[in-house]
Design a protein that fits this description.
It contains 19 helices and 28 strands. It is of the alpha/beta class and about 850 residues long. The structure holds 4-O-methyl-beta-D-glucopyranuronic acid (GCW). 4-O-methyl-beta-D-glucopyranuronic acid (GCW) binds next to loops.
């Protein structure tokens, strides 16, 4: 059929109709990277879009192209006439023209080629399937949005790995485990939400980077999702995502046959249990014919599992796999199985060993549609870990690598941390299986061991607040999809692409944002947990602020074993837990000796004295000091970098990110001071540059003349300057006064206070009785107690001081927030 005018107009009417149906629908893909702003360059391509086929996905591709082209051309009407962009599958191209030279393509592969005849210009976007056409359309738009010349395009791409999924950890009540962007877009109050427009927008975002699956719910507490009522709602979600080629999956509770099926057992080898799963899976496929499969967390952190019946993960996985196989579904069985009641007094106990110890012996015992989903490191999404040895330990089993897009241990979206460089290091890491080159990316792609399945899964944490809460955090979602599509892409190139599409094509902006993104992970690592210590955070609580001892002396197994003499976990074969032996001999050789272990993993593998020298001769303790000062300085530099963009980028984005980066710079100081104070006290070895423990410009709350304020000990002590703070128990307010004894001059004022949950306390700074500035402590930060989670720095004022001046902070509590104060600091202002 010849493409007619209706085919052109209808999709536009459809777009307009969608837009009108949701007036004020806040959440759109355009708030992420699908902005399609005019680049200032001519598009140079035809703007009439035609399709050869009628399938939903092909029509979606056409709609996306028209929408994108319209927007990229600044709203200028799309052309009519003979020139066109033509969409079709390989087969449709051959039917149109039997002499077509279009190559044969794999199902998810696309081919874009510009043909220029004497009279007409045509750009063909051909897919090995209709979904691949959609991927081609998005790739085409991605290039145009970056100002690339597509008039002579020849582009052929296919994804490196079959499974490219995001996992949501959404609960039925709409909360999101480890989510930092508000409420769920999928669920609310135990049901699927009525308005699924944001879900469709999310699916657009996912499709634009080639993601083909979305597992909707939390791996913890998943049994409510298999009730018939819930499945009806889940089917609506599948419907909203289907036009974008995103198939949905569900996390399942292995105890469901008992919990919601009423059976007396959930033993996976019991025939009644097997039958229950088969029936349940059929019910799902009746509602959702393209259902992708199940994700399973079992025998882990309190979730039920096959171990209760003396069965193995293979028994459990295979029961689910058997139910799913007739329908084409898969099981993603998580290797995150470990004992969280480990004995910390046992020098041989080691959580890092668990996944390999449990799953390696089962290699080859899993059904063909089972994929073992392994976190990228052996512990738990820490700021730095070695690559999980399990990737090299399963050669007869399909594998997927799980990474975290939501920044649980990496700053919870309040800190800028671009994770693509971390993921890329893991993907490129050579496991040397059998002495041969076996990078992780080839293992999870399935090519290293000739596996039919495999891929990457990103825990996303998408919510209603600007998708990921912070605008720059979206670079992580984007990068996840791009790396799963093509793990050979460089993180800086992905950062560049994302910035051009999201913020601006202005070279100065692209350069600055790319540099900030690229420096952000190393900076965060420097001021949180360097040398392989992992994130030195509160591991039994928020996973956010500093709390160094929280990982020691408990069953969770995130020990770093710091004492007066030294620090680090000995995981060697010769004297430690033997974890190193889980790697291939070529890799184990490197990690077995402290001399050959890379500095950034030294303390993950070895327990060394604080005076141990790193490869450049610096001692471990001095490195801990230096890296924290350097990391905090880098965080401060991000503020200056961002300020250089003023006037060049969207003012709202500028202001929003500026506030976030200023907060981060302050919190990096909290981190810095906590870690250096802690290790100074523990090691007794001073900072050779005299910084740790010496804060000559600070005036402590506990040293002030206090009216109403009470001095308290902060827990953990290292989270407050001098271990103490002042809190105000008086509803009408309290004050802290200091008399200036320093030099005459100009000083930058910083006030370090605790922004607690449960109220919006007010603070006012006065000089000699004149109020100069006030602010409200109304950020949303973890905890009701004052410590490193909520210690916040207010630093916007420069003051002129002379000896005898009186500086005051007035704190006005609100609700449960007692206007707690740590110190004020006066740093000489540089002229
Ligand atoms: O790191 C831990 C998280 C849990 C999470 C678990 C997991 C979903 O703190 O919130 O539970 O990992 O990956 O299963």
């Amino acid at each position: 059929m010849k493409p007619g005018i209706l085919q052109f107009i209808l999709p536009i009417l459809f777009i307009v109709a969608i837009a009108c149906a949701h007036p004020g629908a806040a959440q759109t893909a355009a708030q992420a990277w699908l902005r399609y702003r005019p680049t200032g360059k001519p598009l140079g391509v035809p703007t009439r879009v035609s399709t050869l086929g009628q399938s939903v996905l092909e029509q979606t591709a056409a709609i996306e192209l028209r929408r994108g082209l319209l927007s990229l051309s600044g709203g200028a009407p799309l052309e009519d006439g003979p020139n066109m962009i033509l969409l079709g599958t390989v087969q449709e191209m051959h039917t149109r023209d039997s002499k077509s030279t279009v190559p044969s393509l794999e199902p998810e592969e696309f081919f874009i080629s510009a043909l220029r005849g004497d009279l007409v210009r045509e750009i063909d976007i051909v897919g090995g399937s209709d979904r691949a056409i959609l991927y081609g359309a998005f790739a085409f738009l991605r290039n145009l949005a970056q100002g690339n010349d597509m008039s002579k395009a020849k582009l052929r791409e296919r994804p490196a790995m079959p499974v490219r999924w995001v996992d949501e950890w959404d609960n039925a009540d709409g909360s999101i485990e480890r989510g930092y962007a508000g409420h769920s877009i999928f669920f609310d109050a135990g049901h699927v939400r009525d308005d699924l427009a944001p879900v469709a927008e999310y699916a657009r975002l996912l499709a634009s980077i080639g993601i083909n699956g979305c597992n909707l719910n939390n791996v913890n507490g998943s049994s409510p999702f298999l009730t018939s009522e819930m499945l009806q709602g889940v089917a609506r979600i599948a419907e909203a995502m289907r036009p974008y080629g995103v198939r949905i999956g569900l996390s399942v509770d292995i105890a469901s046959p008992q919990k919601i099926g009423g059976l007396v057992t959930y033993d996976p080898v019991d025939p009644a249990v097997k039958a229950w799963w088969a029936t349940k899976v059929s019910e799902i496929y009746d509602l959702i014919p393209d259902f992708a499969g199940f994700t399973v967390k079992a025998d882990s952190e309190g979730q039920p599992g096959p171990a209760s019946f003396g069965r193995t993960p293979a028994d459990a996985a295979n029961t689910l796999a058997a139910a799913l196989a007739p329908h084409g579904g898969v099981v993603l069985y998580r290797a995150f199985v470990y004992n969280h009641h480990a004995d910390w007094r046992d020098p041989k106990a080691d959580r890092a060993r668990a996944a390999y110890d449990i799953f390696h012996p089962l290699d080859g015992k899993f059904a063909p549609n089972v994929i073992i989903q392994t976190k990228e490191g052996p512990i738990d999404f820490q700021v730095r870990e070695p690559v999980s040895p399990l990737f090299g330990g399963l050669s007869h089993t399909s594998q997927a690598m799980e990474v975290q897009i939501t920044q649980e241990y990496t700053g919870q979206q309040r800190h800028l941390v671009y994770l693509a460089p971390m993921w890329k290091q893991v993907l490129d890491f050579d496991m040397r299986v059998g002495g041969a080159t076996t990078p992780v990316q080839r293992i999870v792609a399935g090519t290293a061991f000739h596996r039919p399945l495999g891929g990457m899964v990103g825990v996303s944490g998408i919510g209603q607040q600007a998708w990921l809460g912070s605008p720059l955090a979206l670079a992580n979602l984007y990068a996840f999809g791009r790396l799963a599509w093509n793990p050979d892409l460089k993180p800086e190139q992905i950062a560049d692409e994302w910035t051009r599409q999201t913020i601006s094509n202005d070279p100065a902006v692209v350069r600055t944002v790319e540099e900030m993104l690229m420096q952000s992970w190393p900076a965060y690592e420097s001021y949180t947990g360097p040398l392989g210590l992992q994130t030195l955070t509160d591991i039994t609580g928020s996973h956010y602020g500093p709390n160094i001892e929280s990982s020691e002396n408990n069953g969770w197994g995130q020990w770093h074993r710091a004492d007066h003499e030294g620090v680090g976990m000995d995981r060697t074969v010769s004297s430690g837990t033997g974890y190193v032996s889980q790697y291939s001999p070529d890799v184990a050789r490197i990690y077995e000796s402290a001399a050959t272990t890379p500095d950034d993993l030294l303390l993950f593998f070895h327990h060394v004295p604080y005076t141990f020298e790193l490869h450049d001769g610096k001692t471990v303790i001095q490195y801990i000091y230096d890296s924290h000062y350097q990391g905090a300085a880098q965080a401060a530099q991000f503020v200056d970098d961002w300020e250089s963009l003023k006037g060049r980028i969207d003012p709202e984005l500028y202001a929003d990110m500026l506030g976030r980066l200023q907060y981060q710079a302050g919190h990096a100081i909290v981190w810095r001071d906590a870690v250096v104070q802690y290790f100074l006290k523990l090691s007794g070895i001073p900072d050779e540059r005299g910084r740790a423990g010496h804060y000559p410009n600070r005036l402590e709350a506990e040293d002030a003349r206090l009216t109403g304020y009470k001095v308290i000990d902060v827990t953990p002590w290292e989270d407050a300057s001098g271990g103490k703070a002042a809190m105000c128990p008086v509803a009408s307010g309290c004050t802290a006064d200091w008399t200036w004894k320093g030099a005459t001059g100009s000083f930058r004022l910083a006030v370090q206070y605790f922004d607690l949950q449960g109220g919006d306390a007010r603070f006012t700074f006065s000089l000699n009785g004149h109020a100069l500035i006030g602010w409200t402590a109304n950020a949303t930060l973890p905890s009701k107690f004052p410590h490193g989670d909520n210690s916040t720095r207010f630093a916007v004022l420069t003051v002129n001081l002379k000896p005898g001046d009186v500086l005051s902070i007035a704190g006005l509590p609100d609700g449960a927030d007692p206007a707690a104060l740590d110190y004020i600091e006066l740093l000489p202002a540089t002229p």
